[in-house]
Amino acid sequence: MPEWLAWFANLLGIIYVAITTVLFVFPPDLPVSGSSMNYCVVVFAIVLMISGTQWFIDGRKNYRGPNVEIDHNVLTAIASPEATMEKDIANRDGSVKATNDDLPPKYAA
């Protein structure tokens, strides 16, 4: 997908989610009473508070992110020639798959 189209699709998705989130919490009919109120906003707020609390208690310390596969060309561009040659010889087919642990610290996520 071209970069300009990817940006457009992402922005369109964000706008759609923002609009539907606002419309999601409107009450189903007027006048609003305790029995006809839409309590989705309360549930949304509780989930948001629990998620935020969990992030600060545990998530920010233990989340490592996904492993990223890097093809041979990218690894060759960032690794030393000796390290790339050793991996190519070990694989014999020239393919190189790496994770964040295989990258120099400067490039690791």
Description:
- The protein folds into two domains: 3-62, no CATH class; 72-98, no CATH class.
- It is 58% helix and 0% strand.
- It is built from four helices and no strands.
- The longest helix is centred in the middle third of the chain and has 23 residues, at 40-62.
- The radius of gyration is 24 Å and the shape is flat.
- The two termini are 24 Å apart.
In short:
The protein is built from four helices and no strands. The protein is mostly helical and about 110 residues long.
Quick tags:
109 residues, 4 helices, mainly alpha, 2 domains
Number of domains: 2
The overall pLDDT, averaged over residues, is 76
The level of helicity is 55-70%
Coarse structural class: mainly alpha
Shape from CA axes? flat
Number of distinct beta strands: 0
| Poorly predicted runs of 5 or more residues | none
What is the terminal separation in angstroms? Answer: 24 Å
Estimated share of beta-strand residues = under 5%
Order of secondary-structure elements: HHHH
The main sheet comes to: none
**Gyration radius, in Å:** 24 Å
Number of DSSP helical runs: 4
